[in-house]
Amino acid sequence: MKLENLENNIGYQFNNKKLLAQALTHTSYANENKVESNEKLEFLGDSILEYISSDYIYRTYPKLTEGEMTKVRASVVCGENLSKVAKKYDIGEYLYLGNSEIHSGGKNRIAILEDTVEAIIAAIYLDGGIEPTKKFIIQSLKTKIEEATKNVGVKDYKTVLQEILQENGDIKIEYEIIKESGPDHDKSFVAQVKAAGKILAEGKGKSKQKAEMQAAKKAIIKIKR
User: Fold this and answer.
1) C-alpha span between 19 and 127 (Å, rounded)
2) Same domain, 88 and 162
3) Given this model, what pLDDT does residue 154 score?
4) Which of 143, 169, 201, 223 minimizes the number of CB atoms within 10 Å of its CB?
5) Dist. CA 190–CA 54, nearest whole Å
6) 3: Cβ contacts below 8 Å, ≥ 6 apart
7) How far, in whole angstroms, is CA 164 from its chain's centroid?
8) pLDDT tens-digit profile of 113-149?
9) How many CB atoms lie within 10 A of CB 62?
10) Angle, helix 39-60 to helix 110-128, in steps of 10 degrees
11) Catalytic residue among 42, 46, 115, 212
């Protein structure tokens, strides 16, 4: 597929097309073809992403505390969100992958997509400077940032469950992943929550954290009943 189509997708035209090609080059392809991978770009992009997202959150939501801003940023720049950005722009279709990654579904793997988005951020920065980089990041994550700021003060189910169970004393609460299924790029997990060794509930999710959260939610409902 032509890289020009990807440029249209992300809304930035590169002066140096080689930078974009490098940003799309996974280590598996680089090792097979003796070219440079996107690892160094990913390193730079990670720092740029953290700076620009922090600056945007600070300026746009001045009423948030330092702790709340940290939580918003962490939830927004996580691998799952960045992989969704990659899928939004069809970045996976343009990746240069080695044979092993091609056959194992690498173009949909969350870690690979996350790293590639960060590498593209660095490539845009090196090619065009801070302004187009900022535009790309904000257009990609603005909605997620807004959602995160609305939920930042809301306690998650695991916290609520802990407060309910430990109201009258310290009780040991344990979460355990008891089952996982599906290919690497589309796994499902089942989590179990126990209190004082007693099973309270099970929950399912597309990540371990979501499965644990679902288990905690079910446990809260069960206790309240």
Assistant:
1) 7
2) no
3) 63
4) 169
5) 34
6) 17, 20, 21, 24, 94
7) 30
8) 999 999 999 999 999 999 999 999 999 999 999 988 9
9) 8
10) 80
11) 46
Helix (H) or strand (E) holding 173, with range, is strand 173-181
Is residue 55 among the annotated active site residues? Answer: no
pTM, entire model = 0.73
Alpha carbons 139 and 158: distance in angstroms, whole number: 32
The single-letter DSSP state of residue 94 is: G
SS3 95: coil
pLDDT at residue number 45? 98
Q: Angle between the 130-151 and 110-128 helix axes, to the nearest 10 degrees?
A: 140
Residue 185's pLDDT band (cuts 50, 70, 90): confident
- Per-state percent for the chain, helix, strand, coil, to nearest 5: 65, 10, 25
Six-digit token string for 144? 């997620």
Domain containing residue 23: 3-150
pLDDT tens for 13-29 read 999 999 999 999 999 99
Greatest C-alpha distance within the chain: 64
Please give the tally of structural domains in the chain. 2
- DSSP result, 174-206: EEEEEEEES-GGG-EEEEEEEETTEEEEEEEES
Catalytic site residue from 114, 115, 118, 127 = 118
Domain boundary residue, one of 150, 175, 201 = 150
Residue at a domain's end among 116, 150, 184: 150
Alpha-helical regions (H) of 26-78: 27-33, 39-60, 66-76
